[in-house]
Amino acid sequence: MSQADRVSQTDRVPLSVLDLSPRSEGASAGDALRNTLDLARRTEELGFHRYWLAEHHLVPGVVSSAPAVVIALVADATTRIRVGSGAVQMGHHTAVTVAEEFGTLAQIHPGRIDLGLGRPAVDRLFAPADGDGPPSGSDQPAAVSGGPVSGGAVSGGAAPGRAATVVDGLLVPAPPRMRLNADRLRRQFALVGYRPGAGDEYGQQVRDIQAFLRGDYRTAEGEHLTVPAAEGADLQIWVLGSSPGASARTAGELGLPFVANYHVSPSSVLEAVQAYRDAFVPSESFDRPYVMVSADVVVGPDEDTAAELASPYGLWVLSIRSGQGARPFPSPAQAAAYPWTAEERTLVADRVETQFVGGPATVARKLETLRKVTGADELIITTIAHDHADRVRSYELLAGVWQ
User: Fold this and answer.
1) At what angle do helices 269-279 and 246-253 cross, to 10 degrees?
2) pLDDT tens digits for range 135-150
3) How far is Cα 5 from Cα 177, in angstroms, rounded to an integer?
4) Cβ proximity of 89 and 122 under 8 Å
5) What does the buried/exposed string (b/e) look like for 312-348 if buried means 16 or more CB atoms within 10 Å of the residue's CB?
6) pLDDT in tens, 41-82
7) What are the Cα distances from residue 224, in Å, to 166, 211, 219, 220?
């Protein structure tokens, strides 16, 4: 590779990994989990900073549904890399159970555990006045953009009808219009234990978890309660969001690090980051805002190979956006045989057009643009390919040029 092909490394930021434990067409759930452990070991060797697991439920093509359990397996299978959640969906968890689970993990793996928290807003979604979806600025659950109850991020928040723009080389697409099946979503959220009104509890839940970690939690009546597994645990709390709504504000007001999801909701990433920075108040942990931004990436040894490996992505996103739930990841041959309609291509365009695909130098340049435009302190990469070997190779090629 010539010097001209390399991206300047002066401002290199750490790269981390977001893994959904994806299940490919023809593979089993066990295959997907074993692939997760293998990828975690390999990315640790390659120098990636964190390895995060998503939380998804009732989705045929995604196996990461119990992040605390999978984090324990990954932490045991590795030695140095930080391991965490991207993100625990607080709409069907309590602050106590999350503090207990992640406190336990951190007691065994001190200094290596990250607790990423996500906020739903399903009540606003299902309100009669919502029409086609949540109001601008709300944190819409990933189940809406992700089909049946998927988690780990939220979408929404960009102005309806806004046109696509390019900001200093970064595509900020127009907000997509989703196909929603409210009755189906209600049933699925009920199955995973969603509590009506949980979105409004989110900020207090984060504060309660912090109090359990410090050991100074008190009830509204003043009673002091402790969570022994959490008290004093050496873990780091993060907030994830895709809009300039409550998640961004909560992260800023509590002085916590924030993850903006370009790979889930690229149309609102800049507003989300700005809202977080505007709300930031220094804390004991962070004296300035700290932003990590996600990106969907496929790297191949050359441009054509990368394009072929990424070709099933649109079909996979279509299964999400059309309300079926993420299907097992198709093969390039299955993707090539699919008869697309113009409407379907429009439905997935924002995600397909913002996936970073190419050879190592091409993808590194795109990631550097994302870093510059968002001011990210760190980038977190998610890569899905039909064959596990190709997914591992993508991370290897990216690490080689990034370092």
Assistant:
1) 30
2) 222 233 333 323 333 3
3) 37
4) no
5) bbbbbbbbbbebbbbbbbbbbebbeeeeeeeebeebb
6) 999 999 999 999 999 999 999 999 999 999 999 999 999 999
7) 52, 11, 7, 10
